[in-house]
Design a protein that fits this description.
With 287 residues, the protein is of the alpha/beta class. Helix content is 54%, strand content 14%. The chain folds into two domains: 161 residues, NAD(P)-binding Rossmann-like Domain (Rossmann fold), CATH 3.40.50; 117 residues, Orthogonal Bundle (N-(1-d-carboxylethyl)-l-norvaline Dehydrogenase, domain 2), CATH 1.10.1040. The chain has a six-stranded parallel β-sheet, with helices on both faces. Strands 7-8-9 form a three-stranded mixed β-sheet. Helix 9 packs across helix 11, helix 9 crosses helix 12 and helix 9 crosses helix 13. It is globular, with a radius of gyration of 20 Å.
């Protein structure tokens, strides 16, 4: 297919690369032109100076940017994707954003006979680089079925959750779960160290039972060693948790633990950990 990709950050850059490797004709746009030039040279693709130009002959346009305002600018702006994408095309937004902006963009796209999917990601930078992302999708089934084979290039699991906005809300559920698991692991490791236990032996024992989690398997060692200069940044997690907390105020969900952990992440930022991995929750317990 002829596709376009707007946003070549730590996630978008390798994702667009997998599309090119799968044989699609890929045109990219990035706010920092140098990164788009590097991508085009590495993957032998094309680049455009605006998201609209990138989308002008694309069948599907993917976006992966920072927040709601970025989504509006890249998709709805004067030089945005929707201004130029051909009728009958599809916009897939991989940004972790609000359900509100997803519905806003979907309504604008429908007015131009363009399909829209909100499709936030789980798996982080490693998942993007390895083509093993999990994608939670909101939209109609026909649009989803047209886009799914293309997303397969960089995903290990793709699930249509429900109508537009449900992909974003599923991502909120994902981040709520992660916040609780990481805080529990941080407290457990800090407890084990203060109790002078053999931490590797403790993890070996408990990771085979009900306490096991992805975070334990992949983060306990670096957490115990106070190594956090990698992974999903604290500032990004706080953005995501803020979206979930805002949504909870509309639907009446009680997110008392999530609000508590969000405050703990604020303390990590005060320690200088704005760009540390989310596993750095343990740092506030050891300072």
């Amino acid at each position: 297919m002829r596709v376009a990709f707007a946003g070549l950050g730590v996630m978008g850059y390798p994702m667009a690369g997998y599309l090119a490797k799968a044989g699609h004709e890929v045109t990219v746009y990035n706010r920092t032109t140098e990164k788009a030039e590097r991508w085009a040279q590495e993957f032998r693709g094309a680049l455009s100076s605006t998201p609209g130009k990138a989308a002008s002959d694309a069948e599907i346009v993917f976006a992966c940017v920072g927040n709601d305002d970025d989504v509006r600018e890249v998709i709805l702006g004067d030089d945005g994707i929707l201004a130029s994408i051909p009728e009958g095309g599809i916009i897939v937004d991989h940004t972790t954003a609000s359900a509100i902006v997803a519905r806003e963009v979907a309504a604008a796209a429908a007015g131009k006979n363009v399909g829209f999917l909100d499709a936030p990601l789980s798996g982080g930078q490693a998942g993007a680089e390895n083509g093993q992302l999990t994608i939670m999708v909101g939209g109609d089934e026909d649009t989803f079925e047209r886009a799914r084979p293309v997303m397969d290039a960089y995903a290990k699991a793709i699930t249509l959750i429900g109508p537009v906005g449900h992909g974003q809300m599923a991502k909120m559920v994902n981040q709520i779960c992660i916040a609780g698991v990481v805080q529990g692991l941080a407290e457990a490791l800090n407890f084990a160290k203060r109790a002078e236990l053999d931490v590797p032996k403790v993890i070996e024992a408990i990771s085979k039972g009900a306490a096991q989690s992805w975070q334990m398997e992949n983060r306990w060692e670096t957490m115990a060693a106070d190594q956090f200069d990698f992974g999903f940044a604290v500032e990004w997690m706080r953005k995501d948790l803020g979206i979930a907390i805002e949504e909870s105020e509309k639907n009446g969900a009680n997110l008392e633990m999530t609000k508590l952990v969000d405050g703990f992440y604020a303390e990590v930022q005060e320690l200088g950990g704005n760009r540390w991995d989310t596993s750095s929750l343990i740092a506030r317990l050891e300072n």
